[in-house]
Design a protein that fits this description.
Blueprint lengths: L35 E11 L2 E11 L2 E3 L2 H5 L48 E3 L2 E12 L2 H7 L3 E15 L20 E9 L1
Antiparallel strand pairs: 1-2, 2-5, 3-4, 5-6, 6-7
Length: 193
């Protein structure tokens, strides 16, 4: 009942059982609201050293991975343009029949880019948003320099992302080709006189 279905292509479910794929077979497949949002601050100190960490994440969140339009299909948009390397693992008869990536084609007769569960992925993640290591100069040295406090530190932001193995885009917060969240490093000196 699916118009223009092809071997190795997308298959759509006949949810209402009428033997055809129509708009009546649509259902809700996407929940962008996480079951749990969390954050964790850790501050540790030992002698003159200090360490600060901030973790943030979500669990049970769906993301709609728009990057699959470019990475998994030749025919949906920009036919014949360069694609991601995921297409190297596309479905092929008698060779790669266990692949979940549709067989390549230059003709999108089956409208395979329409909204479907193929694009919905597990967007759960934990990110190390901030990591900072600092050192406070000893009091003996501070008195010679006529300072009450001096601290040097190195800090990094967005250093690590732990995500679901099933997520095919690089960042669960960037499934729609938005600007990436940058990783940055800084060095600093805090002085009190």
């Amino acid at each position: 009942g699916q118009d223009n279905a092809r071997m190795g292509g997308m298959k759509y479910a006949d949810l209402n059982g009428d033997g055809r794929i129509t708009p009546d077979d649509q259902t809700w497949i996407f929940n962008p609201v996480p079951d749990l949002s969390f954050g964790l601050n850790i501050e540790l100190g030992y002698k003159n050293f200090d360490l600060q960490m901030f973790w943030q994440g979500v669990l049970g969140q769906d993301v709609y991975n728009n990057q699959k339009f470019q990475n998994d299909f030749w025919s949906v948009t920009d036919a014949g343009s360069n694609k991601g390397d995921r297409v190297l693992d596309a479905w092929l008869p008698n060779v790669n029949t266990s692949s979940t990536i549709p067989m390549l084609t230059t003709d999108n007769k089956g409208d395979e880019g329409r909204t479907s569960s193929y694009f919905v992925e597990n967007g759960s993640y934990a990110k190390l948003r901030t990591l900072q290591l600092g050192y406070n100069l000893p009091d003996k040295l501070l008195s010679k320099l006529r300072m009450s406090r001096a601290r040097v530190y190195v800090s990094g932001q967005n250093l690590l992302t732990i995500k679901s193995k099933s997520l095919t885009c690089s960042d669960p917060e960037n499934a729609n080709w938005a600007y990436p969240i940058p990783t940055s490093f800084s060095f600093g000196l805090q002085l009190d006189f």
